[in-house]
Amino acid sequence: MNAQQSEEVVLHQMINKYVTSINECDTLLGRSIWAHSEEVSFIAPSGRMERWEEIKDNFMLGAMGNFSQRNLKSLTEIINIYGDVAWIEFFWEFDAVRKDGSPHNAKGRETQILRKIDGEWKFVHIHYSGVSNR
Questions:
Q1: Positive or negative, the Cα torsion across 56, 58, 64, 65?
Q2: d(CA 15, CA 29)
Q3: For the chain, what is the radius of gyration of the CA atoms?
Q4: How far apart are CA 6 and CA 92, in angstroms?
Q5: Dist CA 85 CA 102 (whole Å)
Q6: What secondary structure does DSSP assign to the chain, as a single string?
Q7: Measured between alpha carbons, how far is 53 from 50 in angstroms, rounded to an integer?
Q8: pTM more than 0.90
Q9: What is the DSSP string of 30-41?
Q10: Which of 29, 45, 70, 122 qualifies as a cystine partner to 21, CB 3.0-4.6 A?
């Protein structure tokens, strides 16, 4: 396995950790995969968040906390690496159960930007949006 392939394996693991952090609403895992710098941002249909603490409070505990069960799946992942920066594109499906017991199903696309900081890949930006079921 060459260096490029090794980095792709690590980035696939990062996607898996991200998905797990969402599905389990695990803010400790989320904290470990996000950078903790001013540049960090997250764009979702609900708006733009900055820095890990705001992402944790508004997205992880806020939006994802509205569900008693979450099942995010990433599909068709494309990984691009350019030195110490990588971006990942994929489609996703999200099946969940709201706390009131009603089902929630959504599909979307996502771009994730990671930067290698002190030898470790960390998320610095995510932008996602839903797609029509048409």
A1: positive
A2: 12
A3: 15
A4: 24
A5: 40
A6: --HHHHHHHHHHHHHHHHHHHHHTT-HHHHHHHB--STT-EEEETTEEEEHHHHHIIIIIIIIGGGEEEEEEEEEEEEEEEETTEEEEEEEEEEEEEETTS-EEEEEEEEEEEEEEETTEEEEEEEEEEE----
A7: 8
A8: yes
A9: HHHHB--STT-E
A10: 29
Q: Token digits for 21?
A: 């952090």
Nearest to 49 by CA among 130, 128, 118: 128
The tokens for 111 are: 């771009």
